Amino acid sequence: MNQRRLIPSTSMLMAFEAAARCGSFTAAAQELNLTQGAISRQVSALETQLGLTLFQRIKKAIRLTEAGKIYAQEIGEALKKIRNASLNAMGEQQGGILNLAILPTFGMRWLMPRFPDFLKRNPQITVNFTSKLSPFDFNVGTLHAAIHFGRPDWPETDAVFLMAEETIPVAAPSLIQRPVKKPEELTNLPLLNLETRPHAWTRWFEQNEVSAPARGGMIFEQFALVTQAAIAGLGAALLPRFLIEGELKRGELVPLLDLPVKSDEGYYLITPQNRAAYAPTNALKEWLLAQVAL
């Protein structure tokens, strides 16, 4: 048998693997930044080269055949190994590249003011940043680590606890007619919510033995937006104290009550288990643990 037939091109394999994982040619095309037609042609070419039917085409849907299921699992593992080998080689040649996903506000308010110290201590490491608000698949893309808020339940990863979070109710001075003395007074204020923490106000009211108001409030995707909305007087917000130190010092926001709520979630450094020995990631971990201990 021709040995070349047994080694399809990476473009065919990537198209097939993405389609198998996503469950559609359209979703695979979006992930790989190709057209749906290009994905379909690559998969068809792969089937022809192997002499196998990998997908059943049912109207506009696709379904893996039994052979396709086995092949998808093995090709997925093979591509993962190739990707990791490439990252390791690039890192060694260039002195260490660290692709880090961060939460936008945490990065801006806490990480960036401290990060010159990391670069001073690790001049051989080049760090590239991207913003991620929720867990993602490390096997797709080239990220080495992520700073994540939540629980350490990210599949196939190791989580290193960095810090807990204490949120306090705050608002612009213009929103408050008189000092707030009791938690139940906040039920009369418009409440601002963060999309990733939809139950924060409910937990705060429960902690203070007050029934949460039935009405909802405005929802914001990012801390920066909900913080600016609170400064503009649009409502009261529950915000992490350490992320709004500047606004509190300048008087743009004021604490409504000294009744913080400590979340059962926290900030973690997340790394894929198959990259545990990567030196730049370990350097970041050691530095972060030293910073939070200060």
- The chain-level mean pLDDT equals 89
Strand content: 15-25%
Our measurement of the CA-to-CA distance between the termini, rounded to an integer number of angstroms, reads 64 Å
Instruction: Enumerate the spans where pLDDT stays under 50 for 5 or more consecutive residues.
Output: none
What class do helices, strands and sheet pairing give?
A: alpha/beta
Total count of helical runs of at least 4 residues: 9
Shape: elongated
The main sheet comes to: 9 strands, mixed
Q: What is the second-level CATH architecture of the largest domain?
A: 3-Layer(aba) Sandwich
What's the level 1 CATH class of the largest domain? Alpha Beta
The oligomeric state is single chain
| CATH fourth-tier homologous superfamily of the largest domain | Periplasmic binding protein-like II
Could you please say which CATH topology of the largest domain applies here? Answer: D-Maltodextrin-Binding Protein, domain 2
Number of strands: 11
Q: What is the C-alpha radius of gyration, as a whole number of Å? A: 24 Å
Approximately how much helix is present in the residues?
40-55%
Description:
With 294 residues, this protein is an alpha/beta fold. Strands 3, 4, 5, 6, 7, 8, 9, 10 and 11 form a nine-stranded mixed β-sheet that branches. The longest helix has 28 residues. It is elongated and about 80 Å long.
Please describe the structure with a list of short key phrases separated by commas or semicolons.
294 residues; alpha/beta; Arc Repressor Mutant, subunit A; D-Maltodextrin-Binding Protein, domain 2; 3 domains; nine-stranded mixed beta sheet; two-stranded antiparallel ribbon; 9 helices; 22% strand; elongated
